[in-house]
Amino acid sequence: MDEPQPITVALLGGGTVGGEVARLMAVNADDLRARVGAPVQLTGIAVRDRARPRPGIDPSLLTDDAMGLAGSGADIVIEVMGGIEPARSLILAAMAAGSSVVTANKALLAADGASLFAAAAAHDVDLYFEASVAGAIPILRPMRESMVGDRITRVLGIVNGTTNFILTKMDELGADYAEVLAEAQALGYAEADPTADVAGHDAAAKAAILAELAFHTSVTIADVHCEGITNVTAADMQAARDMGFVIKLLAVAELAAGSDGEPGVIVRVHPAMVPRTHPLASVREAFNAVFVSADAAGEVMFYGRGAGGAPTASAVLGDVVAAARNRRTGGRAPGQSTYARLPVLPVGAASTRYYVNIDVADRPGVLASIASTFALEEVSIQVVRQDGHGEDAGLIVRTHQASDEALSRTVERLRALDCVRRVVGVMRVEGEA
After folding, report:
1. Is the dihedral angle over the CA atoms 172, 176, 177, 182 positive or is it negative?
2. β-strands 100-103, 392-399: how paired?
3. Which of 62, 217, 241, 272 is spaced 20 to 30 A from 254 at the CA atom?
4. CB under 8 Å to 4, separation ≥6 — which residues?
5. Coil, strand or helix: which one is 77?
6. Spatial distance between the Cα atoms of 188 and 264, rounded to a whole number of angstroms
7. What CATH topology corresponds to 350-429?
8. Nearest in space to 178 (alpha carbons), one of 250, 237, 234
9. CA distance 288 to 159
10. Catalytic residue positions, numbered
11. Where are the domains of the chain?
């Protein structure tokens, strides 16, 4: 038989992920060939600094002409540079040259995925992006393909390893945020500038991608309500432990009813208390886990390593194999599916339970005043715990299900009471039956 033509691959980015992709392509060359039905040939790697040593990578593959490599007409272009530009321009140039694209770029997909999908459709090429969310965990393809016959109602998960590491250590050690962040930076779990992780932006980008797939509705990062973990304290952690909870940074995307009663989508990222009996409570350190709830399938959980060179490269190469097979057979990846066009609702329409920590004056009638304030906004109290200390007292209130809007109004009323010294903290409670 004639030797099949190789599937050519151009790689944009030679950092942690790109270097691991190149290494695995070399190490697994025979397996990739068997799975694709043709050799998979790396034709070039675009890097910023060609002089930097890159052990295990053929220096002849390196180029600093990223645009030239992107437009070279390779069968598949892999983009693992990150950021919005020049990644967007490079991907569009690759598609215009007839290349299918595999990307791990969550920021670009969450900001402007629509233009990438439109270009892929216009040039009849594939766009794969499994590595953009949760590293090695196969979550996007099951939602994009395996569950496409079902109706997804909610996606709930831990999708950022840095914040999960920090919160795990705060829970285990009883330490403050700043102390654990310094440890995470020393160990390489957090960047020197950790803002994208600890402020929730990384998780928000992933939440937007998950929500668009789940609900067939255009969702960008601008639609995601986002709160980070910088205000989570050791006192919050202790209160959570005392009540049988653990604090996690959660990404939540769900169907909900708007003020007009019509269906919409709410997408939010924020710290939340999770019962220690819930599977998400046992997701420790830099691991990720995502729950997908659907009408027919029920609740499905995906768990694994959510970041790192090797896990992310694994997801990238899975997409490369899929795109390479399509090249050989003439198949195509699913395109963007936003037919539902549901409105994205404000976070005030979300409904959940809450934890409220209040410093109050320790005098008769305070508890009654607090309770009546919650009642004015029709927020039902589930549990109250009171700790007296001198002239001050601490009240911890857990509510039944209430809207975010009603809880926000309640907190403003509490701050106006003369018996309330300050509202120390407010946190949502997720995962309770």
Report:
1. negative
2. unpaired
3. 241
4. 37, 38, 39, 328
5. strand
6. 39
7. Alpha-Beta Plaits (3.30.70)
8. 234
9. 5
10. 206
11. 7-136+309-329, 140-304, 350-429
Please give the Cα distance from 130 to 139 (Å, whole number): 7
Could you check whether 140-304 and 350-429 share the same CATH topology? no
> Cα angle vertex 59, ends 54, 62, to 5°?
90
Paired residues of 425 in beta bridges = 357
Residue bearing tokens 């004015």: 376
Cα separation of the two ends of the chain: 61
Q: Which two tokens stand for residue 21?
A: 């992709």
Provide the strand spans (E) within 339-401.
351-361, 381-389, 392-399
Query: What CA–CA distance (Å, rounded) separates 146 from 130?
Result: 14
Looking at CATH, the fold of the domain delimited by 7-136+309-329 is given as Rossmann fold (3.40.50)
DSSP letter for each residue of 231-294: T--HHHHHHHHHTTEEEEEEEEEEEEE-TTS-EEEEEEEEEEEEETTSGGGG--TTEEEEEEEE
**For 90-140, how does the pLDDT look when each residue is reduced to its tens digit (9 = 90+)?**
999 999 999 999 999 999 999 999 999 999 999 999 999 999 998 889 999
Residue 56, Cβ density class (10 Å: 0-12 exposed, 13-18 middle, ≥19 buried): exposed
In 3-state terms, what secondary structure has residue 340?
coil
CA distance 304 to 317: 17
The C-alpha atoms of residue 197 and residue 204 are separated, in whole angstroms, by: 10
CATH class of 140-304: alpha beta
**Nearest-angstrom CA–CA distance, 61 and 51:** 12
What residues are paired with 152 via a beta bridge? 294
Mean pLDDT, rounded, of the chain: 94
Integer Cα distance of 51 and 70 in angstroms: 21
Q: Quote the DSSP letter at residue 349.
A: G
Closest to 70 in 3D by CA, of 51, 58, 88: 88
Q: Is the pTM for the entire model greater than 0.85?
A: yes
Instruction: Please list, in sequence order, all residues whose beta carbon lies within 8 angstroms of the beta carbon of residue 96, skipping any fewer than 6 positions away.
Output: 71, 119, 123
- pLDDT interval class at 388 (50, 70, 90): low
SS (H, E, C) 84-148: CCCHHHHHHHHHHCCCEEEECCHHHHHHHHHHHHHHHHHCCCCEECHHHCCCCCCCHHHHHHHCC
